[in-house]
């Protein structure tokens, strides 16, 4: 970057930029700060084994008990929050992350600005890479042609938010023929360059936001791998529209193939919005990003609405069935006396079901940690065997619960699809006990396990 195009803040330079991107301010090129804002150094308090699948926790303004919940998840490597959240929320989440010795990641949500139903919410309007002049959405050609400037603004927003790790600028791709496929590698490559321009490189995670049905077959996956194959982020974050707890074995197998193809060059791959599906991915040694009973699947339609998916009460984690349930159904099950006693801090301290549900975030955090403990120190083959035992036990319990009148069928399809998926993975020779690269994030730096 030349000195004429970068400039330093506070120099008094009032020259009009050659092109204005936004109605109220120009998009600044990334400055080469001599002393850029950095996260407050905090001695890491987590000790995570090198072979443990990476676990990133997503937080938001609705998660008022995030600090207490984070304290219950010793396996968490980082805390991620949307940059569209209120400034006070960003400050609060950053403080929790620093206190717990975690890296904070600010999600730029650039992909929302390129969706057909894009609506400029208050949070999106604060971001300097929003579509110019209040218009939008960004077109595929604009994203490709202006990838350098957009990516620089995306990285700068995260740096100024004092992030401890970065997410690259990315866009949703529905199929190999999607025009956005051309913009995707350009945005990610420019993000890596912008990250390096700051002089002190933070780890950069590259999001791949895909419609699963467009990338289920091997040829489509090879096109994707070829498009991004020359990039070297510290990790990949796979966000798949169409991947849910009700996904059939074919989709689960396609997801594993995507992970293995993208990670073939030794870079860790994480699956975003994993929800209770995390149990299958953790058993396979795949890192995950989860929330505390919210955002249990990724759906682009939610991101094109002005209000998003809405702030619904967090679902209640039910480890006996390896799933989560809406609070109303969970309350009925808890009242039935058919479930084993829960030893989490919430259920041990209060008797009222409503009080327990009110603290669902902490209960869910405890269950997530239990799932993490289940895979610790074990090879993938052993993890899968233990998961199969849990699936059989869950099937027996579900049969009894349904015989008592509880409508669970739509919530327990995984009790059939997961065993079929595991069997297919074994038959295809895709279950390996070899070490899988993992991402280790700390407030003070990065380590690859």
Structural description of this entry:
The two termini are 33 Å apart. This protein is an alpha/beta fold and 449 residues long. The strands form three sheets. Strands 1, 2, 3, 4, 5, 6, 7, 8 and 9 form a nine-stranded parallel beta sheet that branches. The chain has helices spanning 3-6, 66-72, 87-100, 122-125, 140-145, 147-160, 180-197, 218-228, 249-262, 278-283, 300-303, 327-336, 345-349, 353-358, 360-375, 380-403, 414-427; strands at 55-58, 78-82, 103-107, 166-167, 172-173, 204-211, 235-241, 269-271, 287-290, 316-318, 323-325, 439-442, 445-448. Residues 1-44 and 443-449 have low confidence and may be disordered. The protein has two domains: 33-312, TIM Barrel (Alpha-Beta Barrel), CATH 3.20.20; 316-427, no CATH class. Helix 2 (66-72) runs parallel beside helix 15. The radius of gyration is 22 Å and the shape is globular. It is built from 17 helices and 13 strands. Strand 7 (235-241), helix 9 (249-262) and strand 8 form a beta-alpha-beta unit.
Could you say which structural class the secondary elements and strand pairing correspond to? Answer: alpha/beta
Mean pLDDT: 86
Q: Output the CATH topology of the largest domain.
A: TIM Barrel
Please state the second-level CATH architecture of the largest domain: Alpha-Beta Barrel
- Which sequence of SSEs, written as H and E, runs from N to C? HEHEHEHHHEEHEHEHEHEHEEHHHHHHEE
Name the CATH superfamily assignment of the largest domain: Copper homeostasis (CutC) domain
Largest sheet: 9 strands, parallel
| Proportion of beta-strand residues | 5-15%
Rounded to an integer in angstroms, the radius of gyration calculated over CA atoms is: 22 Å
What oligomeric assembly is this protein in? single chain
Shape: globular
Q: Which blocks of ≥5 consecutive residues have pLDDT under 50?
A: 1-44, 443-449
**What is the CATH domain class of the largest domain?**
Alpha Beta
- Strand tally: 13
Measured as a percent range, the helix fraction is 25-40%
Tally of structural domains? 2
Number of helical runs? Answer: 17
What is the CA–CA distance across the termini? 33 Å
């Amino acid at each position: 970057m030349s000195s004429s195009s970068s400039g330093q803040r506070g120099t008094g330079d009032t020259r009009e930029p050659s092109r204005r991107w936004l109605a109220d301010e120009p998009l600044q090129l990334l400055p080469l700060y001599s002393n850029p804002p950095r996260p407050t150094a905090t001695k890491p308090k987590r000790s995570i084994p090198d072979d443990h699948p990476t676990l990133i926790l997503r937080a938001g303004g609705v998660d008022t008990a995030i600090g207490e919940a984070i304290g219950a998840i010793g396996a968490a490597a980082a805390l991620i929050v949307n940059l569209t959240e209120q400034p006070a929320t960003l400050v609060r989440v950053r403080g929790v992350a620093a206190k717990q010795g975690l890296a904070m990641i600010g999600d730029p949500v650039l992909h929302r600005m390129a969706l057909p139903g894009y609506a400029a919410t208050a949070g999106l309007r604060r971001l300097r890479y929003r579509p110019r002049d209040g218009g939008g959405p960004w077109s595929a050609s604009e994203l490709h042609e202006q990838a350098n400037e957009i990516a620089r603004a995306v990285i700068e927003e995260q740096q100024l938010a004092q992030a401890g790790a970065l997410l690259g600028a990315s866009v949703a791709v529905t199929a190999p023929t999607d025009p956005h496929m051309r913009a995707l590698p350009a945005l990610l490559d420019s993000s890596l360059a912008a990250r390096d321009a700051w002089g002190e490189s933070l780890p950069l995670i590259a999001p791949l936001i895909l419609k699963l049905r467009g990338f289920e077959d091997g040829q489509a996956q090879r096109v994707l791998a070829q498009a991004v194959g020359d990039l070297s982020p510290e990790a990949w974050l796979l966000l798949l529209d169409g991947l849910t707890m009700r996904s059939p074995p074919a989709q689960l197998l396609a997801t594993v193939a995507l992970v293995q193809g993208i990670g073939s060059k030794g870079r860790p791959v994480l699956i975003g919005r994993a929800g209770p599906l995390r149990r299958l991915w953790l058993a396979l040694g795949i890192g995950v990003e989860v929330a505390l009973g919210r955002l249990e699947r990724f759906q682009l339609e939610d991101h094109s609405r002005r209000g998003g998916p809405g702030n619904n009460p967090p679902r209640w984690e039910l480890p006996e069935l390896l799933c989560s349930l809406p609070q109303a159904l969970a309350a009925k099950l808890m009242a039935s006396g058919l479930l084993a006693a829960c030893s989490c801090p919430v259920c041990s301290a209060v008797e009222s079901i409503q009080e327990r549900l009110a603290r669902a975030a902490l209960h869910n955090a405890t269950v997530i940690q239990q799932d993490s403990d289940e895979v610790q120190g074990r090879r993938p083959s052993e993890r899968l065997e233990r998961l199969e035992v849990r699936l059989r036990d869950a099937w027996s319990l579900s049969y009894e619960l349904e015989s008592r009148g509880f409508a669970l069928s739509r919530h327990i399809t995984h009790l059939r699809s997961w065993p079929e998926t595991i069997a297919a993975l074994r038959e295809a020779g895709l279950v390996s006990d070899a070490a899988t690269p993992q991402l280790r994030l700390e407030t003070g730096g990065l380590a690859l396990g």
